[in-house]
Amino acid sequence: MSFLIQSAIQKRKLEGIKITPVIDSILESRDQRFAIGIVATRFGRRIGNYGGQVAKGVDVGVLALGLFSPIPIKYNLSLYSIIVDSEKNEIAFYKKTLPIEKSPTDPDIIKKQLDKIYENYLFKKK
Q1: Which helix or strand (DSSP H or E) is residue 84 part of?
Q2: CA atoms within 13 A on the CB side of 71
Q3: 46 has pLDDT over 80
Q4: What's the CA gap between 25 and 92, in Å, rounded?
Q5: Which of 84, 96, 98, 121 could anchor a disulfide with 80, C-beta 3.0 to 4.6 Å?
Q6: Residue 57 or 109, more confident
Q7: Residues 105/75, Cβ–Cβ less than 8 Å
Q8: Is-contact 44 36, C-beta < 8 A?
Q9: Is the pTM of this model over 0.90?
Q10: Which backbone phi and psi does 18 adopt, to 5 degrees?
Q11: 72: closest CA among 59, 91, 81?
């Protein structure tokens, strides 16, 4: 699935991207036409680590005479979703969310991101 997602990102179009033979054979062996894949890229710091990174950023800012000061990221979450069609041997749907600086383990945040991905595709926007 990650290969198909990378192909969709690089080509910026779904046309011409064929699903892999492995995915196709798995779906056909299970007599299923569609499959969904979701990939999450995330980052989160341990408790206490964020404060140390802020202090390091201040130190770098002082050493750079205020010209540069890195700002640490506490959390980060992006979701990628793909739906493949084995009958047509193609990607039926692909969408990603922009990175947000929210906890990647919070179920409410993940649900909101999934809702953004599938609104107007699986359901109408509220």
Answers
A1: strand 75-85
A2: 3
A3: no
A4: 17
A5: 96
A6: 109
A7: no
A8: no
A9: no
A10: -90, 145
A11: 59
